[in-house]
Amino acid sequence: MNFHFYKYHALGNDYIVIDPHKAGVDLTAANIRLICHRHFGIGSDGILAGPFFEGSAIRLQILNPDGSEAEKSGNGVRIFSRYLVDAGYITTREFSLETRGGRVHVELLDDRGGQIRIDMGTVTFQSESIPVTGPARAVVNEELVIEGRPLAVTCVSIGNPHCVVLAEPSPATAAKLGPLIETHSLFPNRINVQFLQVLDRNNIRIEIWERGAGYTLASGSSSCAAASAAYKLGLVDNEINVHMPGELLKSISGPADTFL
Ligand SMILES: N[C@H](CCC[C@H](N)C(=O)O)C(=O)O
């Protein structure tokens, strides 16, 4: 398989950018799984395919390593915006991107796209919008029993679906409970999972199990979902820092754009 690709990460949530104007690969589910495979492929938490120009709109496809397509990705949009700057597609400081989960407004905070602010849109807790099976309701602080263990869950959509669990966040918890919740029959489209610990009124810590990707070091939409759930539950104020495992890795490996 011989094609052009670009690889970036955001706090260790890594993506491969495949630009149809430069690449030369058919993004079948099988090829996506191979490209994203950590041992048999390049290895990544997903593929960002684009830009696809539709009039003045710029669209990107967000592909999970299992071949499924996601509606939105916070780190994916940040990384793709940086690629657009690096590749010379973008010369303005503000623009929008079209994702399967809706339009995302992007603002470059410096000329290089080193710091990027994105408006991830509005969250909903409504079951029918996430979706979550059962009666139409706001899925807030519900009990979900997994292997006999009662869990307090709050479910959110920010374009893609999330299940926020009030449980001690650890890689072990994410690896054990993540896949069981991701594929639970309550979630017809599967779901991303976050394990949430409230540190104080302005800081939370999460561990992440992503739909179609598994354990990741960071996730933009997960951080929005966890922060929204904590605020909905009255556990935090409305300015929140979300601490994720990738933060530690960054402190070990130094600034994002240096190579070891
Ligand atoms: N796996 C997710 C998409 C990527 C989300 C994450 N990497 C982010 O930064 O938001 C899903 O199927 O909804």
UniProtKB/TrEMBL annotation:
Site positions (Could be important to modulate the pK values of the two catalytic cysteine residues): 162, 210
Name of this protein: Diaminopimelate epimerase
GO molecular function: diaminopimelate epimerase activity
Keyword Ion transport: no
Function recorded in the entry: Catalyzes the stereoinversion of LL-2,6-diaminopimelate (L,L-DAP) to meso-diaminopimelate (meso-DAP), a precursor of L-lysine and an essential component of the bacterial peptidoglycan.
Source organism: Sporomusa termitida
Pfam name, any one: DAP_epimerase
Gene: dapF_2
Family that this chain belongs to: Belongs to the diaminopimelate epimerase family.
